[in-house]
Amino acid sequence: MYQSTITLQINNNAFVKDPASTDLGKKIISGSIDLISELGFENFTFKKLSQHISSTEASVYRYFNGKHQLLAYLVLWYWSWQKYRLALRLTNIEDPKERLRRAIILLTERVSEDSTFSQINEIKLHLILISEASKVFLNKDVDKDNQLGYFTQYKEVVNRISEIILEINPSFKYPHMLVSTVIEGSHHQRFFAEHLPRLTNVIEGEDAVTSFYVELVFNEIEK
Amino acid sequence: MYQSTITLQINNNAFVKDPASTDLGKKIISGSIDLISELGFENFTFKKLSQHISSTEASVYRYFNGKHQLLAYLVLWYWSWQKYRLALRLTNIEDPKERLRRAIILLTERVSEDSTFSQINEIKLHLILISEASKVFLNKDVDKDNQLGYFTQYKEVVNRISEIILEINPSFKYPHMLVSTVIEGSHHQRFFAEHLPRLTNVIEGEDAVTSFYVELVFNEIEK
DNA sequence: TTGTTTATGATAGTATTACTATTACCTTTG
DNA sequence: CAAAGGTAATAGTAATACTATCATAAACAA
User: Fold this and answer.
1) Which of A183, B156, B201, B212 is least surrounded by CB atoms within 10 angstroms?
2) pTM of this structure
3) Does domain A12-221 have CATH number 1.10.357.10?
4) Interface test with B, best of A108, A178, A199 (most B CBs within 10 A)
């Protein structure tokens, strides 16, 4: 089953036919997470995917218009899932500073197993976010895709955290900028730590990425 | 002519045959800057480029193994140019804080015409940097490309600015992380301002991107 | 001057990718 | 049991990303 208890609702423009509604659809999602994280988005094709899940190219095209739309779906799912996790982690936390600290940690930390949505491998999905997510918007169709709602979940996450920032410092001028800088930045830094360490600072026995961004955010808004 | 006064030396692994050495090579560079900024990297092909410059696909392949290598060359050229501009802007400035401020402005501001290298349209090249540069490293060949030296110029820029930061605050733990966050972040913010404004803060009559990052850097290292 | 290298162009061809269309089977549901 | 919907199998197209071969013209060297 795609999920055991909770369903995350994804914008219906991000698919042709809802992959959560059938067995084949679920196999397409889990299979694409495997293959994209293994091969990278450029080397990933619907032909390889259909072979991987013992189906056919034509069948995959019934769910998604192409691999770009599939990636957009995965990213949308990821942000919808993060929104859900964010709500969980902040329940009953009153102090806005503590709420903000927890939010930044959630956004920047490494993802570990989450068994709530059994068909999705969240660890692999997080790797896809790090290396591939920016390709969803960094192209000439971005305005069209934006109108289709591909980025709504991401914007909502940014918005919610911006609101916490404004609670702490109502006169801070750049809350959205700060939050999207932290999100995109932490993805890049994790990638750099793995492949281009001279562009980051890897510190033994410390999650430098998370500590750096927590510190950065508080220095910026509390100055 | 490719340049009127100064030549920027580019790593010879980033091409098959040096495009700066022939007329056709120079047309390939200026033509690809036009076409990539116009079409986006995904829709750019060597066939379209060869038609644009009235040459043939096969001839373009004599200079670059493929469009990925061409993009890597352009990005390398850009960072080599920024290194040169950085050196110019910091000459005779003694105060490390002022050096840092000028460096951050250089990295984050919009690029305007520079007539030094007449064959290169730096404004279009900067647009390519914003939307396409991360695609050079965000793929499965990154380790191979790193060994070929595709990122040396970028690393050097990051390194030079990190050194200024350490002059100001020798105990700061994350100089490289801060600098690469600022560079990648400012590119993203300019893209967001244009296409996804809810992810950033656009402020009337202010270059919000530059002011945000200058403030961010000083708050972080002087806290 | 002749010969030789080098650069480019012209042409052709291959494998892969990104799709589209058609048909037919096999379930589920009514 | 029949209709409807979902899926598989097959085939085909256009574009992409190359590679190879040959001709020609300019450059340069003997």
Assistant:
1) B156
2) 0.94
3) yes
4) A199
